[in-house]
Give the backbone structure.
Amino acid sequence: MIERTRAEAVRLAPGLGVVAVVALTARLVGQLLPPVISEVLVAVLLGIIITNVVGLPKSTAPGIAFAVQRILRLGIILLGARLSLGAVVNIGLGALGLVLVCMTLALSVALLVGRMANLPPRLALLIGVGTAVCGNSAIVATAPVIGAEEREVSFAVATITLFGTLAVFLYPLIGFALGLTDQAFGLWSGVAVNDTSQVVAASAAFSNAARDVATVVKLVRNALMAPLIVLIAWWWERRAPVRTGSVARGVRKAIPLFVVGFLALVALRSAGLIDQPLAARVDVVASFCILLALSGVGLGTRVAQMRSMGLTPFYVGLGTAALLAGLSLAAIMGLHLAPHL
């Protein structure tokens, strides 16, 4: 057991070392820049530059992946210490209707545009699910249900990564330009940005309050992934046979266990077992975990992989993402849907 732990630490060390350097550099640089440019944006941009201009050895890949997957989830769990159960219920239930409408819209548009562009149906569905629900996690969970090929999964991941990365930089600029409140921006980014890491990055670049709202809204989307997998399996089975056991594997991948951890800390805060001073200290740790994870997001973004996917998936992803962003923002502003905390 000890030997295995030591070997795992050695395997992760190179990548985690690079992630830590990027995160610390971003924090130092961020203190010298105007508040509108957050340390999160600096971390993602610095990571992209290092990976695509300087290059990194393959030995760093496991540590970077660990930061994006495990450390990000730890950061999200720790964010639960900031919020009461009442706030979470208020945000979650208030956003549920908009989330369901946007999920349905994104899936429908992706399938329709994909058919018009002669995109393979499985690839169009993967792009739609990735846009509608929870980015790359949704793609990986859906792939075995519809028997997607590895190439289709890679194209869908590249498409979602591209538009999610653009959202990290564009959404805060749009939010500041429109004068959105923290709550309105948090709801918008939580509903319309793709992957969990990208939602956290975009909302944290706006404000901590926006990050809190966006995290709750995104976790609502994540929690809907498991029932959506079952619906997709039922719908797809009418088109083509489904491999035995593939639905079960998809549902297992779709269940976000870190949501349970987040809610556990929310419950502890609501019960008074986490007071304000302790919550503030936990938030410092959570913020740095998120900064580490988003440094990994930048380091894991390879422009060459996105370029290789061709224009057709790009157009489908662009149409779906743009329509989802525009209509959700119009609904939030026009109907005053932002939660009141």
